[in-house]
Design a protein that fits this description.
This protein is mainly alpha-helical. It has 13 helices and eight strands.
């Protein structure tokens, strides 16, 4: 009886040790880092209603597990509670464990995308960027005019040109393009109102929208912050004496399918945007202006300049008279030193 008792005790001890070893190994399995290389931005899309088993199989298919999926599944059932998992797009990080991933899914800590809408670009360029993004939803976006009215709440505008604020916008997968447009419009309205309230007296603008148009022209004419105020002064000076703006970017905006070559024929053609042929401002902005350009339109520097020409190094040479301007053009554009 003593021998049998010893054998039974030994068996129980061995079985207990076996259970402890298996339990410990399964615990380590859930808390061991997944196979995610350093500096790897790996996104995982979790479908609505996906079970823990399905998600583990997905991780295995994507090469993120060291062992058989079933081992991870049962280990998770023992040491975690992989329930109430939220759908969405998530990022796996180097060193992240399965237990941490389950917590990430339970809390809905989705990956936040970002899209930068650059100042000086047109609505056409922005629209293409927004519609091409894989994780933005454009299904509820109608034709341009209807969409503009829906976002702005006004029938005054027929295009988004100039009305959206250049900035970086963050969003989660599946966010509607409409949501980003509403954010960008609200931000630009806020910036425009701030600039309008800070405008200098005596400017040739009757409405904030006219200031917005001028800001868009300034944006396209110079990328240098130090010159925005001077460029603004040139155009304000011209408007105040009834001189045409004669801005190449406005003329280019009115050319359909512009190929990059501004010709004399383009300058002679009378369009709503050819400021060599029309008086005053064009009917709409020609691009999305930055806040810096809005402020420059509202607060032009005081100058006697009526002309400017690119100096070939990213800046401009400003002139008070046509004779000075022609000499600058001769030097910097025609290369006659």
């Amino acid at each position: 009886m003593g021998t049998i008792r010893k054998l039974l005790i030994s068996s129980v001890v061995a079985a207990t040790l076996g259970v402890v070893v298996i339990a410990g190994w399964s615990y380590q399995l859930v808390h061991r880092p997944l196979l995610v290389p350093a500096n790897d931005t790996h996104l995982v899309t979790i479908a609505r209603g996906a079970s823990a088993g399905a998600i583990i199989n997905q991780l295995a298919a994507e090469g993120r597990l060291r062992h058989a999926p079933k081992l991870y599944y049962w280990s998770s059932r023992i040491w975690d509670r992989p329930v109430a998992l939220q759908a969405g797009v998530y990022q796996l990080h180097s060193g992240q464990t399965l237990a941490q991933f389950w917590q990430q899914l339970r809390q809905g800590e989705q990956y936040q995308f970002a899209i930068t809408l650059v100042e000086g670009q047109t609505w056409s360029q922005w629209a293409s960027l927004l519609h091409q993004h894989d994780y933005l939803d454009s299904r509820d976006v109608e034709d341009d005019v209807a969409l503009v009215r829906r976002v702005t709440g006004s029938e005054e505008y027929t295009s988004f040109e100039g009305l959206l604020a250049p900035d970086t916008y963050k969003f989660y997968a599946g966010t509607s393009v409409l949501t980003l447009l509403e954010q960008a419009f609200a931000l630009q309205q806020q910036r425009l109102q701030q600039a309008w309230e800070q405008r200098l007296p005596g400017l040739p603008y009757e409405t904030p929208y006219q200031l917005l148009i001028m800001a868009s022209i300034i944006e396209k004419e110079t990328g240098g912050n130090s010159e925005r105020g001077l460029v603004s002064s040139v155009f304000v000076n011209r408007l105040q004496i009834g001189m045409r703006l004669q801005s190449d970017p406005t003329t280019i905006y009115g050319v359909e399918n512009f190929d990059g070559n501004l010709t004399r024929q383009h300058l002679r053609e009378k369009t709503a945007y050819n400021t060599y042929r029309i008086d005053g401002l064009p009917p709409t902005p020609i691009a999305m202006p930055s806040y810096a350009s809005l402020l420059a339109a509202a607060q032009p520097e005081v100058s006697g300049y009526y002309y400017f020409v690119a100096d070939g190094s990213g800046g401009h040479v400003f002139s008070e008279t046509l004779a000075e301007h022609n000499r600058a053009v001769d030097r910097y554009q025609r290369g006659n030193h």
